[in-house]
Amino acid sequence: MDHLVILNRRELLKSTTGLLTGWVVAGSPLALIAPGRAWAVDLTALTSSEGTTLLSMARTIAPHDKLDDAAYALVIQAVDNDAAKDANTRKMIKEGLAALRADFAASSESERVEGLKKIETSAFFQTMRQKTLQVLYSSSIGYSYFGYEGEAFSKGGYVFRGFNDLRWLPEVPAEDSGPLPAGP
Amino acid sequence: MARIEFQDESAVVIIGSGAGGGTLAHELTGRGIKVVVLEAGKRQSTASFSQVPGEAFLELTWLDARTQSGNWSVAKNFPTLPAWHCKTVGGTTVHWTGATPRFEPWELRAKSTYGNIRGASLIDWPISYEELKTYYLMAERRLGVTRRNDMPGLPASNNFKVMYAGAKKLGYKRVHTGHMAINSRVHDGRGMCIQQGFCVQGCKMGAKWSTLYTDIPRAEATGNLDLRIECMATRIEHGTDGRVNAVVYRDGQGREQRQKARIVCIAGNGIETPRLLLLSDSSKFPQGLANSAGQVGRNYCHQIIGFVWGIFDKPVYSWRGATLAGVIEDEVKNDPNRGFVGGYRMELVTLDLPTLPLVGLPYGWGRDFASIVENYRNLAGMIINGEDMPRAENRITLNRDVKDALGLPVANVHVDEHANDQAMRNHAQTQMSRVYEAIGAKRVVLGPTPPATHNTCSARMSADPREGVANAWGQTHDIKNLFISDGSAMTTAGAANPTLTIVALALRQAEYISREMKASHI
Predict the structure, then answer these.
(1) Terminal CA-to-CA distance of chain B, rounded, Å?
(2) Which stretch of A66-70, A165-169, B301-305, B386-390 has the lowest confidence by average pLDDT?
(3) For B481-494, what is the mean pLDDT?
(4) What is the C-alpha to C-alpha distance for residues B28 and A15, in angstroms, rounded to an integer?
(5) B153/B131 Cα distance (integer angstroms)
(6) Is the pLDDT at B141 greater than 80, yes or no?
(7) Is the distance from CB of A73 to CB of B379 less than 8 angstroms?
(8) Which of B353, B369, B376, B439 should one mutate to test binding to chain A, selecting the residue with the greatest count of A CBs within 10 A?
(9) Which residue of A135, A161, A177 to mutate against B (max B Cβ within 10 Å)?
(10) Candidates A62, A138, A157; nearest CB to B194
């Protein structure tokens, strides 16, 4: 077992070009579901510095201040996967990054927004926008942060778990609603 | 299940297994008629439906290449996906949301009611409401539609409470949890709705009606159905007498097969049905089958659809509960004083978190865009479902520059919106905004038109053979043993979600086909 683990670790080191790391913010939704306090995402086509710039870009596209960097790192991992699989994608990403100002990740949000508006029609920006929306809001960190409870079949649906628990508006009269099933 | 020989000339071949094809297959096999169903997709089950929205989308959706043109916003916002329907056994009844309103009597007389609308190709249906009503009653029993017969309404969800309170403030009267083909109690061997909110991913309770777990297995149980999955029809052949006599298809292994047929019924949804007719051109029918009047693919309708979201300062949790169980029907009327003809429904809707930013919100990014998603807990949703105007140039054609995996030209969907469509959408968006504002919405977000789910009228029924493709039974004007058996046959779109009407027409067509077969007319 140990031998295999070491081998895998060596393989990983050989193929890894970059790394994104971070600490889970105490008290954040991620802290409730994360297995540990630290997280790391390996990159195989992008460098750490490229990953950092892309992460800043994803945060500018979909800014949720209290959402952990780890959620955005998953976006970068997906972009890195695509770049590793396809040379054209890799070229598009690398060239797109090169066209951003060197201190993009360190600049202010308004400066970052200005910079991105200039490249909004590019394939690079549109790919990053699409990927950010696709990955961020379908991740378990995203579900947790936005309060989305997801599939309910395995828990018996929402019929006894709050589908009609709204109390700040009047109830719907019986003739326009329907009977509730007997409790569980 | 039956095994019908390729050379068997006595079979009815149905292409597609959704609301039209699945219902028709059950009805015909139940009358002792041998049926081959060719279904392009795979077979899922309530057990296999994925509860990961992205996965479910990929497993169920028709994703073969298509192109688009025209000024409608879908061409710009969703360039590779003009329509969102299914490629799976059960067709679009797997991902539909279960809304089953009827057409209004005056909607079937669209031309007579609305008059001459410039730039529209309106005609009246060749069927009266009284006649269709007989089949609506049968369809409603079959599907277990709520608020019909003895099936109670579905209970109000949080999302509906918001819609209801706003609608009542505005004085709307016809507001309720909808006529839904979703069991509010155990019925027909299927479970009851447990308010999962995963209608679109396939209902794991089977509470929502689908041919996948009703008509298809029951047709198989008759011993008269040969269901062939992953079989994509590519061409319908005919004899020198001009009658169709075989369907050519690719099976799951990529082999070309040819099934002989006594009768062919096409139920491939509003885009693939006309595409197949056009792909089947021959020296005798150089414009494609059933197209002597040049009407195949024309008058394509998709209804006026669009999201409206209300953001409140308290939670709604709109994702909990049956997705579409709620409706305001007061605007389903023809009142040209509103600035347009025809009517629209306002229906309850929500989207799961992964899908909302991709399909439900207007294009955007940055603080403003993110702030909408940030409010996901406090979001209530509605969708417009209104009648769009048929236009001769809104049509499905073959794009010979783009080929599918089999090397066949893909369908091009062309839509130029009629001024009536735009006026209706504006009116609906204003009214829906007022519904939310009446009860204190912090913000109303007008979402885009999503890829079309109600693809209809592209091989329409007409009394006059020059104005459509099929007669009042969906039998093509040109070829007696060729039938249109899905929403393509609808004459106009109306303001009703189309499935109940498709089922009613299929029930009616099944009676006609079996009668005509017995009389040896076809």
Answers:
(1) 25
(2) A66-70
(3) 98
(4) 60
(5) 26
(6) yes
(7) no
(8) B353
(9) A177
(10) A157
Closest CA to B498 of B103, B23, B14: B103
A165 neighbors A105 (Cβ within 8 angstroms): no
Secondary structure E strands in B374-475? 379-386, 395-403, 409-414, 443-446
Residues ≥6 apart with Cβ < 8 Å to A184: A156, A160
What chain B holds in terms of domains, given with CATH numbers, is 1-45+84-96+122-145+210-301+456-522 (3.50.50.60)
Compare all CA atoms of chain B with the CA of A67 and give the residue at the minimum distance. B374
d(CA B89, CA B94): 8
The answer to whether B481 and B522 are in contact (CB under 8 A) is yes
- A-chain residues near B377 (CB < 8 A): 146-147
List, as one string, the DSSP characters of B417-430. Answer: --HHHHHHHHHHHH
Query: For residue A163, which residues of chain B lie inside 8 Å, CB to CB?
Result: 157-158, 195, 197, 317, 320-321
Nearest to A153 among B155, B204, B316 (CB): B204
Reported ipTM: the value is: 0.94
Whether residues B195 and A157 touch (CB distance < 8 A) is answered with yes
Using a CB-CB cut-off of 8 Å, the residues of chain B touching A164 are 155-158, 161, 321
Nearest to B355 by CA among B55, B92, B45: B55
The answer, yes or no, to whether residue A12 has pLDDT greater than 60, is: no
Q: Contact B369/A143, CB-based, under 8 Å?
A: no
For residue B516, report the phi and psi dihedrals to the nearest 5 degrees: -70, -30
pTM for this predicted structure: 0.95
Considering chain B, what percentage of its residues have pLDDT values greater than 70?
100
Span B414-419, average pLDDT: 98
Identify the band that residue B385 occupies on the pLDDT scale cut at 50, 70 and 90: very high
The pair phi, psi for residue B279, each rounded to 5°, is -70, -15
Q: Nearest chain A residue to B173 by CA: give it.
A: A176
CB-nearest to A159 from B165, B194, B198 is: B194
Concatenate the DSSP letters of all residues of B232-252 into one string: EEEEEEE-TTS-EEEEEEE-T
> In Å, how far is A90's CA from the nearest CA of chain B?
23
Q: Residue B179: what are its φ and ψ, rounded to 5°?
A: -90, 110
Q: What is the DSSP letter of A84?
A: H
Q: What is the DSSP letter of B307?
A: E
The closest alpha carbon to A116, from A50, A69, A65, A61, belongs to A61
Residue B144 pLDDT grade (very low, low, confident, very high; cuts 50, 70, 90): very high
Q: Which two tokens stand for residue B233?
A: 């029809």
**How many Å apart are CA B430 and CA A50, to the nearest integer?**
45
Residue with tokens 């994360």: A34
**Which of A116, A137, A156 faces B194 most closely, judged by CB atoms?**
A156
Chain pair A-B, CB pairs under 8 angstroms: 154
List Cα–Cα distances, A59 to A67, B45, B386, B494, in angstroms: 9, 39, 38, 44
DSSP structural state of residue A106? G
- Say whether pLDDT at A9 is over 70: no
B170 is written with which tokens? Answer: 């505005």
pLDDT of residue A31: 64
Quick check: A138 and B176 CB within 8 A?
no
In this structure, the number of other CB atoms found within 10 A of the CB of residue A10 comes to 10
